[in-house]
């Protein structure tokens, strides 16, 4: 690494911002290698059991060094952290309209296109390569939701926004429809100034949650969160929560849709985040008819593929149970009444029972 005077690091930062924008990132911020009060908040959240089956979150905290909370333990030598932001809101079918039409499938806007890991990680590495070319070799590691990183806290410290009451990062100019990525670096880059909280007395996100997963401002009980239930949960979706899922088959955007700051969120500039296979307007019946090979082929390169075919069918079965009773819906469910997966059969039986009781 080249020797640079202290006041020259500000010029280095501006170069990094420029290179980042050229690579498609919408904003770049800088913070120290620390997480402040977030470590204690994480410990309290875990102690309450709010992480559900996400044991990996607790595993890193219990390790020596608490890697999630201490960047210098995760990557020894880290002095600064670069956080990047990439907007993902696609030009898609209106989210509220899809949610209101319970015969259609609702997929979280972030998952309609290409898997963000596959989009962001190569560009983060390209940014590191530009930095290495300019500064010489330096200790670093790039992250895209791929390791125990407290990305919202780091982004908050870097001035890219504040933590909203829905626990997501918020920015007054763009709302919350964006991905975050990080570069842990040994370069002593001066930190940016954090912004203040602008949620005020608003509770729109809390009030909008279909399953009441936001138990208090800044407190999410993942065990009730639809994103957790449809993505992270490997087993049965708890019966008391199934009706509240509505037609949401992968993730949930309700808290973001309700947030006033998202009235200003811009559409993404990234073509890879455009909806694939008309997933923004597909019906539940047509998606439930996909074979396992069709699922694998059409979800190649998508974040959705990671949940696997069985959980995909499980989620759609619940949504079909919440759909209006009609011959097409009942016929689709009966076609999988004897599915090879016990998990699918269980949720299909539940859905059919709902339609039988409504006739």
TrEMBL record:
Residues binding tRNA are 234
Question: What's the domain of life for this entry?
Answer: Bacteria
A GO molecular-function annotation: metal ion binding
Q: Which GO terms describe its biological process?
A: tRNA queuosine(34) biosynthetic process
- Keyword set, alphabetical order: 4Fe-4S, Cobalamin, Cobalt, Cytoplasm, Iron, Iron-sulfur, Metal-binding, Oxidoreductase, Queuosine biosynthesis, tRNA processing
Q: Which residues bind cob(II)alamin?
A: 68, 145, 169, 180, 227, 252-253
Give the cofactors, semicolon-separated.
cob(II)alamin; [4Fe-4S] cluster
Q: Which pathway does this polypeptide act in?
A: tRNA modification; tRNA-queuosine biosynthesis
Q: Which cellular component terms (GO) are annotated to the entry? A: cytoplasm
Pfam families noted in UniProt: Fer4_16 (PF13484), QueG_DUF1730 (PF08331)
Q: Which residues form the active site?
A: 145
EC number from the UniProt entry? 1.17.99.6
Q: How is the cofactor bound?
A: Binds 2 [4Fe-4S] clusters per monomer.
Q: Which SUPFAM superfamilies match?
A: 4Fe-4S ferredoxins
Binding residue positions for [4Fe-4S] cluster 1: 199, 202, 205, 259
Homology family: Belongs to the QueG family.
Q: What does this protein do?
A: Catalyzes the conversion of epoxyqueuosine (oQ) to queuosine (Q), which is a hypermodified base found in the wobble positions of tRNA(Asp), tRNA(Asn), tRNA(His) and tRNA(Tyr).
Name of the molecule in the record: Epoxyqueuosine reductase
Gene name, per UniProt, is queG
């Amino acid at each position: 690494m080249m020797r640079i005077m202290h006041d020259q690091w500000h010029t280095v930062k501006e170069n990094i911002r420029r290179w980042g924008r050229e690579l498609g990132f919408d904003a770049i911020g800088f913070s120290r290698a620390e997480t402040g009060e977030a470590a204690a908040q994480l410990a309290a959240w875990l102690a309450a059991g709010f992480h559900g089956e996400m044991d990996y979150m607790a595993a890193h905290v219990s390790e020596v060094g608490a890697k999630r909370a201490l960047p210098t333990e995760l990557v020894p030598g880290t002095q600064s952290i670069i956080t990047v932001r990439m907007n993902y809101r696609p030009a898609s079918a209106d989210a509220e309209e899809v949610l209101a039409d319970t015969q259609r499938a609702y997929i979280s806007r972030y998952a309609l296109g290409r898997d963000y890991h596959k989009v962001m990680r190569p560009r983060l590495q390209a940014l590191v390569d530009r930095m290495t070319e300019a500064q010489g070799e330096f200790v670093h590691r790039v992250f895209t939701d791929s390791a125990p990183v407290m990305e919202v806290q780091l982004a908050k410290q870097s001035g890219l926004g504040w933590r909203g009451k829905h626990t997501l990062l918020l920015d007054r100019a763009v709302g919350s429809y964006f991905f975050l990525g990080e570069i842990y670096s040994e370069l002593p880059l001066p930190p940016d100034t954090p912004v203040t909280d602008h949620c005020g007395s608003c509770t729109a996100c809390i009030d909008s949650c279909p399953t009441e997963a936001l138990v208090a401002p800044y407190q999410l009980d993942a065990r009730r969160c639809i994103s957790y239930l449809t993505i992270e949960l490997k087993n049965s979706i708890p019966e008391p929560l199934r009706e509240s899922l509505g037609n949401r088959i992968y993730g949930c955007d309700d808290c973001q849709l309700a947030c006033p700051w998202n009235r200003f969120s811009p559409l993404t500039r990234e073509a890879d985040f455009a909806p694939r296979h008309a997933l923004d307007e597909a019906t539940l019946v047509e998606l439930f008819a996909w074979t396992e090979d069709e699922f694998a082929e059409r979800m190649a390169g998508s974040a959705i593929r990671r949940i696997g075919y069985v959980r995909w069918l499980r989620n759609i079965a619940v949504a079909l149970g919440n759909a209006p009773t009609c011959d097409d819906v009942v016929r689709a469910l009966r076609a999988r009444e004897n599915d090879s997966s016990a998990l699918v059969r269980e949720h299909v039986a539940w859905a059919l029972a709902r339609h039988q009781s409504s006739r």
